[in-house]
Every structure is written in structure tokens, then in C-alpha cells.
Amino acid sequence: MSAHIGVTGLAVMGANLARNLARNGFTVALHNRSVEKTDALLAKHGDDGDFVRTETLQELVDSLEKPRRVLIMVKAGKPVDSVIEQLEPLLEPGDIIIDAGNSHYEDTRRREAALAKKDLHFVGIGVSGGEEGALNGPSIMPGGSKESYDALGPLLEKIAAHVDGKPCCAWIGTDGAGHFVKMVHNGIEYADMQVIGEAFDLLRSGAGIEPAEQAKIFEEWNKGELASFLIEISAEVLGHVDAKTGKPFVDVVVDAAGQKGTGRWTVISALELGSPTSGIAESVFARALSSQTEQRQLAQELLAGGEAAVEVPESFVEDVRQALYASKLVSYAQGLDMLTSAAKEYGWDLKLDEIASLWRGGCIIRAELLKEITKAYAAAEKPANLLFAPAFTKAIAEVLPAWRRVVATAVQLGIPVPVFSSSLAYYDGLRRKRLPAAVIQGQRDLFGAHTYGRVDAEGTFHTLWGEDKSEIEAVDTH
Ligand code: 6PG
């Protein structure tokens, strides 16, 4: 029996993807560096569908129909290169290697280019939804050549989550486009998680609402425009009581958040692209600050608070809900704007409506909001920024007073809300008629003759600051 696809790397994610493929009627050849994992999977879940047991990569390759599809699910970085190195001599032109891990998109671009020279397809696919999603339907973001998608897409679309009968999987674009979009997905994920954390802190420290009560508030929020996987699981986390102590679970967990790195990658890439993803960046920095436990300890002893004794308004819970909505929307707007910049930089034809659509189900940032975002980008006239789509322009205008009240109250009370407040600053920065950047241009021209443009004339100018301060036309030296 020849298998439709091979999977190598059978830790939880690889095993679950293999099982998902088998459950959907595909014959899956299994391979793992140590055969015990393969056997354990077969012993436990062999009934999920048709599997082919293999012990070596050669056996795996031999068991596949052509063009061969080999999916690698190993740790991002060197392990991926090592598996590719071993696989490559065993494959024939036209075969497809798929990397379903959280690889950096630049690695994917490099690997794709190297393998293309050998007539092999290399497809980096972003897979979101955690272990559960991998088994029951993830959101899938495949890059690589269009040709490889033709051979691979039908399998991926079948195992992906479906919303309104549509698979949460579509060809994203060439080379590293799939992994890039997955990376930005994770950046938005970080911001989304952080704004929920900020809402929790505001409700507790500002309004004295205990976690169990907040769980109910979050459940309520999950019925409206905030409905999303992350709000849903936050209600569960907040409602959970520690069995050992009887305390709220969130009070016994160390408040230092780690990261595997995709959020950080998003911000590094945003900086390189000159893309203002301030909310995403603040969420990465917030995790970093949370992990500076020693400094935090010292700061509690050394640094003054100077908080103002302000009462939180009556409407506080609803205000926080609205501010959360606005900040979340800005994170999506920034992430999608970054995709637009990346598309230009890397020559990808990224379709934002399709991307928003495939985030509607299966993935960690799945949210009700994505339906409207999909619609906004499917319109004949695409908004230059998500916030310019009429539905969102209106939605933000409505929540703006609450958003300002919440940020102002947080500042007065000394509650850090880096994403709530930076999102508002982004919003205000975007719509500001004159930004202080003109002063910066003046400073740059003074100390470095970096030149400037004028509002009333074409060209580039320089003021002779050290002489008579007259202005000359200049060659742009940036
Ligand atoms: C997903 C997730 C997943 C990712 C982490 C993020 O979309 O299923 O984004 O791919 O690995 O859950 O982990 P860190 O918070 O450790 O970066």
C-alpha cells in the first residue's frame, strides 16, 4: 500500500497531525527517530485510520506515492535542517518536503531556495491551534510554490478547521509567506493575551473584582463582540480554584510569562520593515518585564507610586470591555498592516481577506471579530488600514470615550496597561494632523545636516544652523 503522505517527528504535534490525516481517510506513513514513539502511537491510536509503520527515512520515502509528500514536525532550527539533509538524497524531482513547525520565515526562504535548485518543493506551513487543533482541525497557513499547493492543498484543506463550510487553509504565497503569516498570527496572539491580562488587572486592582467573579464577566463578554477562544479560555483560567490551597489558580501561579520566541520575531521583523506594531511590541516587552523578577522585587521597595485617589466610574466594567475591544482591534490592524508591508518587501501577493478568513477557526486568535475583518478586506475597495473600514471606524468611534476613560484611570491608579495605552497612542498618532516628527527633523538637521522637506515646497532643504541660519536646497542625505 502506498501512503498519501509521510510524517516524521511524532511528538504530540506531529502525532496529532498524523492522526488527523488518517482520520480523514489518508494513508499516513509514520517515522520517528526512535521507533518506540511510532509504535506507541500505533498501539494507542492505530485504529484512527490507515498507517504505514517505517523505521528509517528510506522506508518512509519508499512507502509514499509520487510526488512524495513528507511532513516534518520537529523542533524549529537546526533539527529541521538536519532532517532535510537526510531526506534530500532520498527524494526525486517534484517531491515535496513540508515543514509544519514554527520555523522562522527567513529559514524557510533559505531552505526553499536551496531545495528549488534541486527541483524539490519545500513548503513551510504555519499550523495554529495547539495540540487539540492539530488533532481536530487547525488553522493552516501554507507557503511555497503554487504548484506544490496543488498537490498538497486538498489534504491540508481536509484536515483543517472549517467555518461555514470553508476550510481554514489557503495558499498564502511563495517561499516563507506561510511561516511569516503564522509568525504575525502569534504576534497578534501575544497582544490579545496581554490585553486580556490588562483587563483582568484593571478589574481586580481598579474595581476589586475577584477572579471567580471575573470568570462570569468574561463568560458574558464571550457572548458579544469579544467572543473568541482566548476570552473563553481566560474565563476558565480565572474560574479555576487551586485544589491545594483553595485560592484562585491565578494567585498561585508565578507571574512571569515566558515565550518560545515567535512574538519576539514578529517585533524584530516589524522593526526591520518599519511597521508600527506598537501593541504587539508592548506585549512582548510586558512578558520580558514580568520575567525581571529580581528588579521587580527591588522596585517594590524603592520606587514611589504617587497614585491619585480616583474612584473608578460606575461604568468601569463596561468601559474595560470597550477598551479591550478597541485595543484588540488595533493589534489586528497593526498585524495586518505589517503583512501589507511584508508583501511589498518580499513580493508576496497576500490576500488579507483570505488570511482573516482562515484565522476564523482552528487557531489561537480565532474570534468573532474576524468575520467582520474578512468582510472588510473582501470589499471592492480595500481599506489602507483595518481601522478605515467603515464598520470599524464606527465601532471605534463608539468605544473611544470608554477607552480614554480606562487608560486615564489606569494611569491615575498606577495600573500598567501597556497595550491598552500604546494602542490608544497609535490611534491618536495615526489621526493627528501634525506630529512632533517635525521637531525631530529639525534636530536631525541641526546636529547632522540630515535635511528636511517643507510643507510648502518640493525638494530637500538644510538650514545653515552654525552660520546665519539661512536655508539652502540640499541633496537628501536622509
Ligand atoms: C498556535 C500557537 C503556538 C505557539 C505557542 C506560543 O498558534 O497554536 O501560537 O504555535 O507555539 O502557543 O508559545 P509562546 O507563548 O511560548 O511563544
TrEMBL record:
Entry-linked SMART domains: 6PGD
Domain 6-phosphogluconate dehydrogenase C-terminal intervals: 178-466
Metabolic or biological pathway, per its Swiss-Prot or TrEMBL entry: Carbohydrate degradation; pentose phosphate pathway; D-ribulose 5-phosphate from D-glucose 6-phosphate (oxidative stage): step 3/3
EC number from the UniProt entry: 1.1.1.44
UniProt record, GO biological process: D-gluconate metabolic process; pentose-phosphate shunt
Record: residues binding substrate: N102, S128, G129, G130, H185, N186, Y190, K260, R287, R444, H450
Single GO term (MF): NADP binding
Active site: K182 (proton acceptor), E189 (proton donor)
Function summary: Catalyzes the oxidative decarboxylation of 6-phosphogluconate to ribulose 5-phosphate and CO(2), with concomitant reduction of NADP to NADPH.
Protein family according to the UniProt entry: Belongs to the 6-phosphogluconate dehydrogenase family.
Subunit structure: Homodimer.
Protein name, as recorded: 6-phosphogluconate dehydrogenase, decarboxylating
Organism this protein belongs to: Arthrobacter oryzae
